[in-house]
TrEMBL record:
It comes from the Archaea. Belongs to the enoyl-CoA hydratase/isomerase family. This is Enoyl-CoA hydratase/isomerase family protein. It comes from Halospeciosus flavus.
Length: 225
């Protein structure tokens, strides 16, 4: 479930599945893409309900995938992350609590990432024989550099808010992410999307995403053998 709260200059989107740590189903991915794309405000704040930001893909869905459906699920997640990255609105990820796997990818798709002191991050897919296939293999190195990206991806270790700030996974550690969204929204609404697109411009996305989806599908197929 996705909760939408439109304020004066900020649309607040809350992933509202606390009983599943806000894990992402195909339907929730689609709802999230639509809610960001049609935002009437210059800024969107994305957050999670309960004790987690987002646990990533819902494994109740992943466990039922075969090779072809796994590839489709990867592509679906990529479309959502791209919708966030390509939206006119500036999207702020306010990470409070755990971001895991696809939850880290979701934060990476946002334009501004901030964490509360209670936030933690981990790319846990490797321990399950999988990896994030929603654009994370491109966005994570872009955010933190290749060396740190490989460390986080290959160890699956948990990073606290202070280390996330140190390596560039988030830009600030704050008590209330709403304050950051409001600070962005206080600026000129016409300048924000233009500046965002100039910084975000990247011609390598399509090929990397195809390779991600194929590799993810191969791994899901191997788990089912």
């Amino acid at each position: 479930m996705l909760t939408v709260d439109d304020r004066e200059r900020v649309r607040v989107l809350t992933l509202d599945r606390p009983e599943r740590r806000n894990a992402l189903t195909p339907e929730l991915l689609d709802d999230l893409a639509a809610a960001v794309a049609d935002a009437p405000t210059p800024v969107v704040l994305l957050r999670g309900a309960g004790s987690a930001f987002c646990a990533g893909a819902d494994f109740g869905v992943v466990d039922d995938l075969d090779r072809e459906s796994a590839r489709r699920f990867a592509r679906r997640g990529q479309r959502t992350m791209n919708a966030i990255e390509d939206a006119d609105a500036v999207v702020v990820a306010g990470v409070d609590g755990a971001a895991r796997g696809g939850g880290v990818e979701l934060a990476l798709a946002c334009d501004v990432r901030v964490a509360t002191p209670d936030a933690t991050f981990a790319e846990t897919g490797v321990s399950l024989g999988l990896f994030g296939a929603w654009g994370g293999t491109r966005r994570l190195p872009r955010a933190v550099g290749e060396t740190v990206a490989l460390d986080l991806s290959l160890t699956g270790r948990v990073v606290d808010a202070a280390e996330a700030r140190e390596v560039g996974l988030v830009s600030q550690v704050v008590e209330d992410p709403t304050s950051v969204a409001e600070a962005v929204a206080a600026n000129d609404a016409g300048a924000l999307p233009r500046l965002k697109r100039l910084v975000r411009e990247d011609g390598s996305r399509a090929e990397q995403e195809r390779r991600e989806a194929d590799a993810f599908a191969d791994l899901v197929d191997a788990r089912n053998d």
